Amino acid sequence: MRILYLLKKEFTEILRQKELLPLVFIAPLIQIVILGYVVRTDITRIPIQVVNRSQSPVALELCNRIEATPCFQVRKTGRPGGTDSYREVLKRGEVAAVVVFRDKTGRRPFGLPRIQILMDGVDSNTSAIAAGYLSGIIRQYLREEVSRRGMNFPLDFQNLIRFNPDLRSINYMGPGMVGLLLTILTLFLTSVSIVREREQQTMDTLLMSPLRPIEIYLGKALPMAIIGLIQMAVGVVTVILWFRIPVRGNLWYLCLSGLVFLPAILSYALLISTLVRSQQQALFFSWFSMITFILLSGMFTPVANIPSSLRWIADINPIRYLIQIIREIFLKGNGIEYFYRDLLILAGITAGVVTLSLLNFRRFISR
Amino acid sequence: MRRLKAVLKKEFAHVFRDPVSLSIVLVMPVLMVLIYGYAINFDLGEIKTGVVDFCRSQSSGMLLKKFAHNRYYTLVDLTGPRPVQTGEQMLREGSLHQYLIIPADFSRKWHGEGPAVIGAVIDGSDSNVANLVVQYNQRMAADFGKADPAGQRIISLDTKIFFNPELKSSYFFVPGIVALILIMISAFLTALSVAREKEAGSIDLIFLSPLTSGEIIAGKTIPYLLIGLICESIILLFAHFWYQIPFRGGVLILFVFSILYILSGLSMGILIATVTTSQKAALFVVFLITLLPTIMLSGFIFPLDSLGPVIRSLSRVVPATYFLRIIRGVILKGAALKHFLLEGAVLLFFSIGFIGISMKRFGHIRRRGR
Asked: Contact, B192 vs B299, CB < 8 A?
């Protein structure tokens, strides 16, 4: 019961910081909304230049189709030039690709002109996707031509896309962002708040009290966990309503995974606080681990792409599991039988890291 | 001049007095570039593909062999009484990217009138991966078509890719990571340094001295500018020798622009520290306005052209937007100074602007107290 007094103290301390509260609550919401618009990895309006040296009607038709897709924005239908001049255009970064229809007449089958695509390969992902779209447009044209002549392509794929049929990337990124914001708040504030007690020597006062170390830690962690859960609820509702993300699974599972996730991330805060000597170092460490956890969480790029030598970072990264679970719940509508293992791992991480920190804690207070 | 020297001496003393923090500042970027350079990439390692072959003929076997020989595909034969259900289940678990269904009449259609249609059921939850899978499949189909005497060679696009012919995503990300680290470190350092003096109260002593706000700010920026440049050189060395990123442009030009970029980060940090009241709050703000905007709004991952007009205009106030264009242009494309006059001017404007505002804030705090 004595922990209740500690909780009261911690809440007073949090609520006293007038400046931090709006930052903690409002800033993340604004970020969620803004970032929600950004994280559409859907490629649209890629600036390209189309050079049509061919007079054939096919080239004209293809030009029109390229202009019509939302994927490209034809900046210039400019003058023809040599390869070097195109290279210069790409170097200036005005356009991401130049499409050249080469010969004057279409001598190839179906009156197709020779098509050359010159791309800026720096943004490899966008380039690959843009190239795919371009060849898709030409393919589609051919397919229509072929079937108009009563023939058929020998081989074709019929794609059926599950879980996110329109391939809207916000469906994928949106739910994950909630996990990010939770982390920023909890990891950062908790570790600093513990270290500050030590820096201001109030930790000694706490240790003199009958409180055990684990209770002191719980007193620090619980208020953050409660704030975190509120923030998560607000974030989830915002994401669902604002971006109209389908929720196929049970939201109670989401609540449950939040409850399992928060102790895991808070235990890292505890670990950091036992490793460092000053607030400044605490800030450094939580900052570094936060960026690493965020970038290696599978939020932006698939976890499977992380080389095996670094995979362990992803394996001990609680955000990775949370994001995976959130996505399964939101998009696939999976039940707990699909992610109970992830929940167990999260619990395991919590247990491991808390043990480590408590071992360290003795060293930490004796210093 | 003499006064400036004295301030610089004091600030350098601050930097060197805490070797732990200094080494963290110098070692952390290296760790970051090592970890992130490997871990952040879009290159699809393998496409885990389930196969349900209802045809079981020579031609379907040939097709599957073609897939199996491709280094991107890992095939899993889905057997058992209900292979489609197994595929569906594995898709849901996330153990497959897609599964292919080869219908029973595949062989007949392939040899006859066509089209021989293969069904591909793809996990779309990661839209980016799904897009890539669709494209790889299409490429496989085109390749397989080529083997056919009827010949599908008509779709031979002559594609030439400049600057990064193998489309390695490290070429794209590593310069971006340099930009991310530089802005974070620089804003972080000055924000911390000013906020700490405010918290400790030692800033009042400085305010009581005859130093002008300009001199105080110069004292706070110059040492950290040097640290920033050292950091940058270390990261660039790693980028070049470890990740084998080619340097096609002039390194000197890059450093000229880097000074402007680091300055805007440093002055942003000072400004943040002057408007917040504690170290914690200052760093929280630094974190909020450097990390996510730099990742999301600068073209670090998401192409700026695809953003809507409102968000696009937000991206214009992120310094990294301009620096990214410069660093990618100079390093990868060998672009020259004349290509980046506008970007350079904007960065100059940012640094002067932030320094100006923070000088005003300093004057304000000095007169009115904190």
From this structure: no
The full length of chain A comes to: 367
Using CB atoms, which residue from B123, B148, B192 is nearest to A280? B192
pLDDT at B154: 43
**Total residue length of chain B:** 370
Q: At residue A259, what are phi and psi to the nearest 5 degrees? A: -65, -30
Rounded CA separation A253/A61 (Å): 52
pLDDT reported for residue B151: 43
Whole-number pLDDT of residue B155: 45
**pLDDT given for residue B153 in this prediction:** 41
Confidence of residue B349 (pLDDT cuts 50, 70, 90): very high
Residues B30 and B70 in one domain: no
| pLDDT tens digits along B312-330 | 888 899 999 999 989 988 8
Answer yes or no: do A27 and B296 touch at CB < 8 A.
Answer: no
Based on the fold, state whether residues B17 and B99 are members of the same structural domain: no
CB contact under 8 A, B128 and A41: yes
**pLDDT tier at A246 (50, 70, 90 boundaries)?**
confident
Together in a domain, B298 and B336: yes
Weakest mean pLDDT among A34-38, A103-107, B84-88: A103-107
Would you say A90 and B163 are in contact if contact means Cβ atoms under 8 Å apart? yes
Q: Are B248 and B289 in a shared domain?
A: yes
Residue B55 structural domain? 47-155
Residue to substitute from A37, A51, A159, A224, interface B, most B β-carbons within 10 A = A159
Same-domain check for residues B331 and B346: yes
- Identify the residue whose tokens are 């793809």: B122
Tell me the pLDDT band of B93, cut-offs 50, 70 and 90: confident
**Of the candidates B124, B155, B186, which is a domain's last residue?**
B155
Q: Rounded to a whole number, what is the distance in Å from the CA of A1 to chain B's nearest CA?
A: 30
Restricting to A residues 178-217, those with a Cβ less than 8 Å away from any Cβ of B are 180, 184, 188-189, 192, 196
C-beta atoms of A44 and B305 within 8 A? yes
Across B260-294, b (16+ Cβ under 10 Å) vs e yields: bbbbbbbbbbbbbbbebbbbbbbbbbbbbbbbbbb
pLDDT at residue B273 greater than cutoff 70:
yes
Cβ within 8 Å of A, B 282-311 = 283-285, 287-288, 291-292, 295-297, 301-303, 305-308, 310-311
Same-domain status, B213 and B323:
yes
- For residue B70, name the pLDDT band (cuts at 50, 70, 90): confident
**Contacts of B38 by beta carbon, 8 Å cutoff, 6+ apart:** A306, A307, A309, A310
Give chain B's mean pLDDT.
Answer: 84
Is the CB of residue A321 less than 8 Å from the CB of residue A238? Answer: no
| Domain identity same for B241 and B258 | yes
Residue B352: pLDDT above 50?
A: yes
* Residue in chain A lying closest to B339 (CA): A92
Where in chain A is CATH 3.40.190.10?
46-148
Q: B126–A302: do the CB atoms touch at under 8 Å?
A: yes
How many domains is chain B partitioned into structurally?
2
Same structural domain for residues B203 and B137?
A: no
Q: Give the tens place of pLDDT for each residue, A176-228.
A: 777 777 777 778 778 878 888 877 777 778 777 787 777 888 888 888 888 88
Cβ separation of B128 and A108 shorter than 8 Å?
no
State the Cα–Cα distance between residues A274 and A277, nearest whole angstrom.
8
The CATH homologous superfamily to which domain A46-148 belongs is: Periplasmic binding protein-like II (3.40.190.10)
**Closest to B127 (Cβ–Cβ): which among A42, A44, A122?**
A42
Residue A54 has pLDDT above 80, yes or no: no
> Searching chain B, which residue's CA lies closest to the CA of residue A336?
B93
**B115 in contact with chain A, both atoms CB, cutoff 8 A:** yes
Taking the Cβ of residue B19 and every Cβ of chain A, the question of whether any pair is shorter than 8 Å is answered with no
Q: Residue B163 falls within a domain, yes or no?
A: no
Shortest Cα distance from B136 to chain A (angstroms)? 9
| Exposure on the CB side of residue A347, measured as CA atoms within 13 A | 10
